[in-house]
Amino acid sequence: MPATVGIRVGSKMPKMIGTTQMGSIKLHDYIDGAWTLLLTFPQDFHPVWATELGMLTKLKPQFDARNCRVLGLSIGSLKQQARFLDDVNETQDVQVNFPIFADEAGDLSRTLGLVAPSAPMNGSEHFRLPYSAAFIVDIDMVVQFVFHYPVTIGRNLYEFIRVLDGLQLTAYNPVVLPTNWKVNDDVFIEPDITSDAAKALFPHGFHEIKPYIRVTPSPNITDDS
After folding, report:
1. Backbone angles phi, psi at 94, to 5 degrees
2. Which residues, other chains included, contact 66 with Cβ-Cβ below 8 Å and sequence gap of 6+?
3. Do the beta carbons of residue 94 and residue 59 sit within 8 Å?
4. How far from the centroid of its chain's Cα atoms is residue 173's Cα?
5. Structural domains in the chain?
6. What is the C-alpha separation between 18 and 36, in angstroms, rounded?
7. Under a CB-based contact definition with an 8 Å cutoff, are residues 26 and 65 in contact?
8. What is the pLDDT of residues 64-123, one digit of tens each?
């Protein structure tokens, strides 16, 4: 039996091949050249996941605009998933238009560390962990964000847009972001940047509250991603 692999921030996203309602997908090929949001759904026919899938479909253009692929993963058969997606489309007034892995045997969930290590092969649907998960993967296929959420509460999908904006900003600029940051808010200069270097890097200047708290207007993302 293969060992369970836990995915953490800084991990390389593992290579995975799976079946979706849109056909077979090789994960690395599908997400090559883009950021990626992968959401997991521990089961089909659940009211929380129905609303999440509906809202994610409605928000997909915002992820597209940020060069971010959207993917789902559910534990269950492709046939079962198809019936559930019909319900989602009907009740949420959408047409789900992104691929969702049908992980009937739990192999992909096991790779992502979302199935209990004690679960037997081909029986993982009986050993679901009591949370859903979200992963944001950067353009180099490195995991930058991992989020676990209780199955009783729907996830705030707007928060994933905010996190994606922040990750893309900090990936290409030496800044860190304050609590409740949103796009165009002021940011902090990374504490390791010297003041002399900061003067060259931030032409709009900065306000020093403490040597490690230096506030500056938000730069633009300079990378095309």
Report:
1. -140, 175
2. 35, 161, 164, 165, 168
3. no
4. 21
5. 11-167 (3.40.30.10), 174-216 (3.30.1020.10)
6. 16
7. no
8. 999 999 999 998 889 999 999 999 999 999 999 999 999 888 888 888 877 766 666 655
Neighbouring CB atoms inside 10 A of 107's CB total: 18
- The yes-or-no verdict on residue 22 having pLDDT over 90 is yes
| pLDDT tens digits, one per residue of 185-197 | 999 999 999 989 9
CA distance 108 to 7: 12
Residues of the chain with pLDDT > 90, as a percent, come to 72
In the predicted model, is pLDDT for residue 199 greater than 70?
A: yes
Q: Is the pLDDT of residue 225 over 50?
A: no
pTM: 0.89
